[in-house]
Write a structure and sequence with these properties.
This protein is α/β, with parallel strands linked by helices. It folds into 2 domains: 313 residues, Trimethylamine methyltransferase-like (TIM Barrel); 30 residues, no CATH class. The chain is 47% helix and 14% strand. The strands form 5 sheets. Strands 2-3-1-11 form a 4-stranded mixed sheet. A 4-stranded mixed sheet has the order 8-7-17-16, with no helix packed on it. The protein is globular, with a radius of gyration of 24 Å. The termini are far apart.
């Protein structure tokens, strides 16, 4: 008998088909609102039924879009090397933080404070030095920067402090050209970036079944350029969608499929990535949740649908609702990472978020990095063969012997999961080393990484160019 196999699927193919058919029914019979005229023109010319902004999309158009959309999308690092491969049926897991938490749990003081521009730079440095964090995002919306240029400043900080691919937060068309200029500079040229994109952009739908001008204008522009974009529908169970997970999937998938259709009508072969965010509402307070079994089950369960439809995707998981990096937070992050590895979730978004994405923690990033090692070791198959059984070594050692000095031990002990911040020592040894808690060790590690700086610092010429682009953005957008 062979090893246990993964991934695990929450939904069978038959169940995925039921959700898909329900979404097609919604688009064909109920329809959706599309509030941007160029997108309406694309849909009208493709044969959709349109009444004002109300659009009904035939099944055949969705099927055509599925045919032309790429099944695999590669995102590169700043060295033009493949860094993240988005493939719905792949078996590699990737991890990334997310954008725009309003508060930061300060690693120096332990206090919760408003986020500032330096926080995005420090996030990038920490991510750059963690082997298991594959993309970078800011984790902080800066309170000390004018809103008009905040996303431009965030991206500049990411590019200056990490060579890993970036998530680009595209809140308005007015900022996108400057964000693209920053990316072109990081890549060396516009042509180099578009050939091997080192960024992915996120576009949110407005559930239920609404698609607004600001988002669609940016989405169409990026699609035509060939920049990878994920189109996400973020529903709240019981408020903006049915309270059942299956009902939430049907509504959210409908929105995602609208994005898929529009992307492929704008540019056949556009690099489309889907995302279904299902955030259960706490019916006692009506606040959303980013942890707990319903959240994780509904979030990670969505990958079964994307696998079935063969659409590249991202999932938001591995965060916590706890306002502190406490025992609850550690449990939530651990559960998310374990499920991500067990399910082979392709790209996991939201690492580092606490307090239901209101706050962020760099210590949470460092903890997650080690827990990813732990989870991968846990779900690595156990090799059973003549070499691993080691019958010759057993015979050499014989009854009553030990295996410490054997070559077999020296060879295979290297397969053990490395420990970075986790400890295996008795109380007296721990006391002798200062009695440091996990929180203290994580905070010290963050300080060490921030002090270390990025692995591959930019040249002064590139940094100066990035600064110049940001200065031009401030002059145009603020005055």
């Amino acid at each position: 008998m062979g090893n246990a196999t993964y991934p695990f699927n929450y939904l069978s193919d038959d169940q995925c088909e039921m959700v898909y058919q329900a979404a097609l029914d919604i688009l064909e019979k109920t329809g959706c609102k599309v509030m941007y005229d160029p997108a309406l023109d694309l849909l009208r010319n493709a044969g959709c039924t349109i009444d004002g902004q109300q659009v009904k999309i035939p099944r055949s158009l969705v099927e055509s879009a599925r045919e032309t959309a790429p099944k695999e999308i590669v995102v590169y690092n700043q060295h033009r090397e493949p860094a993240v491969i988005l493939n719905a049926r792949g078996d590699k897991t990737y991890y990334s933080p997310a954008p725009d938490a309003l508060f930061r749990l300060d690693y120096k003081t332990g206090e919760r404070r408003v986020a500032v521009s330096q926080d995005s730079a420090e996030t990038a440095i920490v991510c750059d030095n963690l082997d298991n964090i594959d993309m970078v995002d800011d984790l902080a919306y800066p309170d000390d920067c004018p809103q008009e240029v905040a996303t431009i400043l965030q991206l500049r900080n990411l590019l200056e402090n990490s060579s890993k691919p970036c998530f680009v937060n595209t809140f308005s068309r007015a900022t996108v050209d400057y964000q693209l200029q920053l990316n072109y500079t990081g890549a060396g040229s516009k042509e180099a970036f578009l050939e091997k994109p080192s960024a992915m952009c996120g576009i949110p739908a407005k559930p239920p079944l609404c698609h607004t001008p600001t988002e669609l204008e940016t989405f169409l522009y990026l699609n035509k350029l060939g920049v990878p974009c994920f189109y996400n529908s973020s529903v709240s169970l019981g408020t903006t969608s049915p309270v059942t997970i299956a009902g939430a999937y049907a509504v959210a998938l409908s929105d995602v499929l609208v994005g898929l259709v529009i992307s492929q009508l704008a540019q056949a072969g556009a690099k489309f990535v889907g995302a279904i965010y299902t955030d259960p509402a706490d019916m006692r307070t009506l606040s959303i949740k980013h942890s707990g079994p319903e959240f994780l089950k509904s979030s990670i369960g969505s990958i079964s649908i994307f696998r079935y439809l063969n659409i590249p995707y991202i999932v938001h998981d591995c965060a916590t609702d706890s306002p502190a990096l406490d025992v609850q937070a550690i449990g939530d992050i651990t559960a998310g990472i374990m499920l991500a590895e067990m399910n082979k979730v392709n790209l996991n978004f939201f690492i580092g978020f606490i307090e239901t994405a209101m706050s962020s923690s760099l210590e949470a990033l460092v903890y997650a990095d080690e827990m990813i090692d732990y989870a991968r070791a846990l779900f690595t198959p156990i090799p059973v063969n003549d070499d691993t059984i080691g019958k010759d070594t057993i015979e050499q050692v014989g009854p009553g012997g030990n295996f410490i000095a054997q070559e077999h031990t020296l060879e295979y002990m290297r397969d053990f999961c490395p420990q970075k911040n986790f400890q295996t020592m008795n109380y007296n040894a721990w006391k002798a080393q200062g009695s440091k808690t996990m929180q203290q060790r994580l905070s010290e590690k963050v300080a060490e990484l921030v002090e270390k700086g990025p692995r591959y610092p930019l040249t002064p010429e590139v940094t100066e160019k990035l600064e110049s682009i940001f200065a031009d953005a401030k002059k145009e957008l603020i005055g």
